[in-house]
């Protein structure tokens, strides 16, 4: 308890000091509870999430940093590794590959990297995973990115999605 | 600094007394010896005089009592109390102090001791005022350390070594050469082995200091604190990983390694791995200092292992218990009579061609390589039950590869020994 508090306090100071260093991440600690944090992250460039700002909620366990923080998206996001309803994130470093050398800041960075490079083979959002695979299997990269963007933004008609999935099964 | 003192001394009308009181004979105050050497903690409250005009008391009382263990190297004057002196001292008018010029160490003489049983007071007038008009302290110092002794036998001047000697060139002791590491004049020019030793220890100390300075800055990436700024001494230790060079607090890394694995966490890939580079380390070594080279690390590890080897293993318990770490235990496995445990191949069970042997993990890995090398049809199943690593070697040997199998076993045995 004491160690986790001390460590979070250190991280808080670090975040205050390096605010300007990483403009994509804005990490804020709850005023009354150092175990609750929120973060605003910018969607990585050259991805469909570019231009968007996503809110994350951190819940830090008392055994931190021996145990990973629990992170979920508060902003709705269509991503193969994020549960669409709960915002739960499937990321190895938040589960079995956690190491105490990670900080909240570096977790944010890992989540940004996950947004840029989805892992469709271990999906939490099966529809998104299948669709992602379908699109990237069937099409060239630039075309796929555009299509994927339309998908995420909800611009793609349902029939088109179904067609794409059928296509991927044939592949 | 030396000259005014000498002049004062030469013109001083006050006696040099053997008394250990603030007032010399005739009520004159005696110069404080601490003040004379540069610093007196008592300051103005000192009962001895802090006035250069007052004469110092420079007489070795031990010598007068019979034995001074410093002998010729004593910094105080070895003045022999003579019979005439003790009788004269009562009147304190006849200055007849005899200075032993030739004898520097005098064994206890009974008749002198008996003379000392009476209160002893030195003569009021210094002997040099009779012998010569001007007092030369060097002459006096020569009594302590005659110039004609071999230079190697002369001791080094402590004042010069500490910074500066008030006597300068006239100092009877040898002013040492400058030590490049500590910046002090403490190398004896005529004792090469002594100065070499000093150089060595000084260099080592300096290195240690530099390392400590460097270590102060190192942060643990688990608690994000500087390792050496922790509140308790037990926490101010580094935990060295055996296989990589990332620094942690010993408590942080031990906590992490012993924390219960959450679901899906593998002991070897996450908990025993370095939190930064994920390289698997089998043990961590506590150290109060961080290292700058692999040799230093090796030295720390060896020292630690040597220390543990001298401690009896509590699991082994002088042969009564069973140590789960077996042959790779760092602690001493010895019986009550001092006999060390014999290293033997332990066959845990042999059922239909399966031989299970207990090994340390390292050897198991080595063995696996060996078996791959020999291309025998050995199959090694490594499975791990908490800590002893039980390696089960299942060998399905056909008669042709019998030689390969034999070689593999030879290798195994050589690993064990």
List keywords for this structure.
heterodimer; A: 171 residues; alpha+beta; four-stranded antiparallel β-sheet; 4 strands; B: 417 residues; three-stranded antiparallel β-sheet; 7 strands; elongated; disordered N terminus; Znf_CCCH_sf (chain B); RING-type E3 ubiquitin transferase (chain B); zinc-finger (chain B); MKRN-like (chain B)
In short:
By secondary structure, chain A is α+β, with helices and mostly antiparallel strands.
The secondary structure category of chain A is alpha+beta
Largest sheet of chain A: 4 strands, antiparallel
Number of strands of chain B: 7
Q: How much helix is in the residues of chain B?
A: 25-40%
Give the strand order, joined by hyphens, for the main sheet of chain A: 1-2-3-4
Written as H for each helix and E for each strand, in order along the chain, the element string of chain A is HEEEEHHHH
Number of strands of chain A: 4
Account of the 3D structure:
The complex is a heterodimer of chains A (171) and B (417). Chain A is of the alpha+beta class and 171 residues long. Chain A contains 5 helices and 4 strands. The model of chain A has no long low-confidence stretch (mean pLDDT 83). Chain B has 417 residues and is of the alpha+beta class. Helices cover 33% and strands 8% of the residues of chain B. Chain B has helices at residues 2-11, 33-36, 61-65, 83-91, 110-116, 128-131, 137-144, 158-162, 192-216, 250-258, 267-271, 294-309, 361-374, 402-416; strands at 238-241, 248-249, 284-287, 347-351, 354-358, 378-384, 389-395. In chain B, the strands form 2 sheets. Chain B has a 4-stranded antiparallel β-sheet with strand order 4-5-7-6, covered by helices on one side. A 3-stranded antiparallel β-sheet of chain B has the order 2-1-3. In chain B, strand 4 and strand 5 form a beta hairpin. In chain B, helix 13 runs antiparallel to helix 14 (402-416). The longest helix of chain B has 25 residues, at 192-216. The model of chain B is unreliable at 1-21, 83-117, 125-145, 345-356 and 373-401 (pLDDT under 50). The chains are: A alpha+beta (171), B alpha+beta (417). Chain A: The active site is at residue 90. Chain A: GO terms for molecular function: ATP binding; ligase activity; ubiquitin conjugating enzyme activity. Chain A: Its EC number is 2.3.2.23. Chain A: This is E2 ubiquitin-conjugating enzyme.
